Amino acid sequence: MTELKTKRNKGDVETFLNSVPDDKKRQDSFTVLELMKQVTGKKPEMWGDSIVGFGSYHYKYASGREGDWFLTGFSPRKQNLTLYIMSGFDEYEQLLGKLGKHSTGKSCLYIKKIEDVDMDVLKELVKKSVEHMKKTSVG
Question: What HEC string does the chain produce?
């Protein structure tokens, strides 16, 4: 089995976020950082080179593959601010309808700028996802 490349590490979150070249994306990243700190009550940690994660859970697939991953997190990518909603979006259609301008992938929420979304709705979405992951994870 191949080893997961994205792992929790000792990188400094503030140094990483301060290195984001785009001023607006850097400011938005610090806003999301504060939101996720409030919601999770966890200290942010670097996962890989470019993901800020909060908390962790243990997963185990039927194939036998297992590992640890963050409960929620984000990354200031070039195109978008990517928020990781690990529970996916199947149960959150109503919230997504109220969120504002965004797009989604399997467990990624893509936002161009923080002003495009309702922060209270975003906070609720992150909170529900974290609660879901805590209930359904292995460890």
Answer: CCCCCCCEECCCHHHHHHCCCCHHHHHHHHHHHHHHHHHHCCCEEEECCCEEEECCEEEECCCCCEEEECCEEEEECCCCEEEEECCCCCCCHHHHHHHECCEECCCEEEECCHHHECHHHHHHHHHHHHHHHHHHCCC
Q: What is the pTM of this model?
A: 0.92
**pLDDT per residue over 1-48, tens digit each?**
455 677 899 999 999 999 999 999 999 999 999 999 999 999 999 999
Domain at 8-136, CATH from 3.90.1150.200, 3.90.170.10, 3.30.360.10, 3.90.226.10: 3.90.1150.200
Q: What is the pLDDT of residue 139?
A: 52
